[in-house]
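We store amino acids, tokens; thus:
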Amino acid sequence: MTGPIPFDDRYDEPDQLRDQLRRILRHRVLIAVGILVGVLGGLALSLLRAHTYTATSEVLVRSTTDPFGTVGVAADNQVSMTTEQRIAGSAAVAWRAARIQGRPDDQASSLAARVRVTNPLKSQVLRFEFTAQSPERAARGANAFAEAYLADRKSRNDAAVRRATRALEQQIGVLNERLNSNQLERATAKPATQNQLYNLQKRVLDIKSRDTDGGDVVRRATAPTLPVGPGLRTLLVIGLVCGLPLGIVLAWVRSALDNRVRSVGEVQTALRAPVLGILPSDDGGDEALLTVGRTRSPRTEAYRALAFRMRQADGPGGAGRVLVVAPRNAGDAEEVAANLSAALAEAGNDVLLMDTSPDTSGLATRLPLRPYEAPTLEEAFLPAGSVLVDAEVDGRFAFSSGGGDGPRYRTAFADPESSTVVVTGPLLTQADALAVAQRVDGILVVAGLNTTRRDDLRQVQELIGCSGGRLIGAVLDTGRPRRRLRLRGLRRRAKFGPVSQADTGSMELPTQDSTLSASRR
């Protein structure tokens, strides 16, 4: 045969985004699983937060002048709210809150983990948000932390007052000792000392008269009526929105890891050979193996186009000797070989379809073979052991079944004037196909879209190259998975009945009675 024929890849879309979207949508189950996981996650979150309540209390931190003599300071700057916020969430306040609620001291850390202290912007208010498993506990916890903070701040102010008055009282005591000593008997010295003593005593009274409470509770916490967080419907919607991207990511990962061929370009890359034909899907077509010359469908026209390309490649003499083989499923190769032979015979060529599989494939039982009658002139010139196929074509279409070691196999290959289409077992599971590959003009590989793996095609290309065979191209079957499964089941159930030996050393063909019986079934 001549060089490979380029074939237009109608599956290589210029829009890569559309192709990627198609690959992702092939895994709709994973997308549904992602959505289901998101919805279940939202439902679980709603159940976990169904018994979680948050109560809020607010404390106004009182802004007073510095009791220790600070003057001229603005009221907003007299209290550092950032410092007070940190103190309100400290362990000391949590310990006081545990005492207020009557809990042990070792539970103070757990209470501190449940409270959240915030300071609204541009305010001197501290907000205590306490979370608990019941509304009453949440309200008690928020109020306890507010009271604990005020008690802590009051204790800090009282301690500051005691420190300040202690130093002033020490100065007062020193002055009293001086007044009572002989050193100050002079009349001019006593009024100055008494005046200084009076000022110190007045300052002590001012410090002790200051209010050290430090703040007021402006909002007491009440038991909440609803649990914290969004409701069930909101969580389900959120789970749905989050689950959809998760499902898309899962589908994308699955499509990236998928080793099956998805386009003509992948087949050409794996085999390093062109795709000579694409068989369209025809799920509603006839279940018969042979469709060329019997039915009219897009799949039948695809077989005729394939035969035309092969005749053009080989010249006017026909298609030569072609081996049709599949990587693992022999049923796909048998269908393509039978219909390719019929399409070649439609052009008036003499075609011999030869099944060289060593096992009983059942191909003869699924072909419309002519019944045994008195031999005609046409049948007299058939290769030994072959029978005519009733395909309603112009040329002579014969079928022969036998292994690669029989004389019928050698005789058929020795005829240079007829086109021979050879079908054998799967190339990756039966080694006999490699022996056949060395004796033909070219090899045609049948691959299934979305079913054949790229690794299998690469292995087929390597085996054919090592055996010395010539790979002329591939046929891509785009569909009919249901029909393929039915044909596979028929092939498994097809068992030859009584047989007759047509030639010494050849394999068995079914008798005409058994062939007709199988056709009726």
